[in-house]
């Protein structure tokens, strides 16, 4: 079982990154791939959860240990899979998640794609009080300087939302508002889009 991998990010897509480690490119699914940037000179550490099934061995990557620990707790809940768990983490709102679980806020949890009322209730039942020891502070978004047209960044962010499981109708509902924001990075568009979808 991997704890983390250190290497260079050589590709970023709406669903995953490719991390080059010792000549091997690892495909790593992440909640928000655009928190990482392609930089062959910069060494990054990605915390890893390895999922092994009869049909595949998949790697899920996290920016820090806290996100990995939250992922491991969520994925242990019956009825919730890796894709739904990544969608929850993509919101980058640990405070909101912990508060929702501790306050039995089913409505908050069902806003995530793939999480119905029954699954939300199961998350609360299984995880209430289980987040102690994990810092619930929201991670600050990493700012990227961006001097060129933002159309590609917006397009990538919308693709990332679709990859997380949000419907075309939901995405179209926030697209106009996102389009009014100029000069944002893909990560910033994605973060803003998630906030709009949660309200």
Overall description:
This protein has helices at 65-75, 82-90, 94-102, 106-109, 117-127, 151-163, 168-179, 186-197, and strands at 4-12, 16-21, 24-30, 44-52, 57-62. With 199 residues, it is an alpha+beta fold. Strand 4 and strand 5 (57-62) form a beta hairpin. The longest helix is centred in the C-terminal third of the chain and has 13 residues, at 151-163. The protein is globular. The termini are far apart.
Quote the average pLDDT. 85
Distance between the termini: 38 Å
| Count of distinct strands | 5
Cα radius of gyration in angstroms:
17 Å
Shape: globular
Low-pLDDT parts are: 135-149
The tally of helices reads: 8
Q: What letter string, H or E per element, gives the SSE order? A: EEEEEHHHHHHHH
Q: Which strand order does the major sheet show?
A: 1-2-3-5-4
How much helical structure, as a percent, in the residues?
A: 40-55%
Structural class category: alpha+beta
- Largest sheet: number of strands, sense, barrel closure: 5 strands, mixed, barrel
Measured by DSSP, the beta-strand proportion falls in: 15-25%
